[in-house]
């Protein structure tokens, strides 16, 4: 009898979770929490397998409608994050990205690229209290920096090699990632 009761509770909990996932009001918050739970520090690509950016010929636009030439970031450590306000994994990783940004914004180039209108993306940042720099693409990205899957992030070293490519949510505020940043900044 005890086992049957326990199974009934498990079934009830599963039904409640399924119903909550079907309701639009609760689906996104549940997905965000789930993504935060499964987010780990992003893995570093082995040095001999790191692809290089083919070109720095890329134009972005900042929230003030100023053109930003990607060439100005050559020889710098760069973190690119493709994201959207409607993307639960993107929202889940934003707090950790904001924490890293606060500590490294003067030494690392951060490019948070969204295809949404600035009114939407900057409104999200303002509502959450984030200070992250939002951009839109004016020209196509250079290979291999595609961002079709959201979120997709790239950490690029001073030589233009991709040290980390991460699709999906990650814990960017981990000791491992911070150590990677420090190593790249020292070289």
Automatic annotation (TrEMBL):
The chain crosses the membrane at residues 9-26. The keyword Metal-binding does not apply. Keywords: Membrane, Transmembrane, Transmembrane helix. InterPro entries: Redoxin, Thioredoxin-like_sf, Thioredoxin_domain, Thioredoxin_ResA/DsbE_sf. It holds the Pfam family Redoxin. The keyword Transmembrane applies. This is Thiol-disulfide oxidoreductase. SUPFAM superfamilies: Thioredoxin-like (SSF52833). Residues 44-186 form the Thioredoxin domain. GO terms for molecular function: oxidoreductase activity.
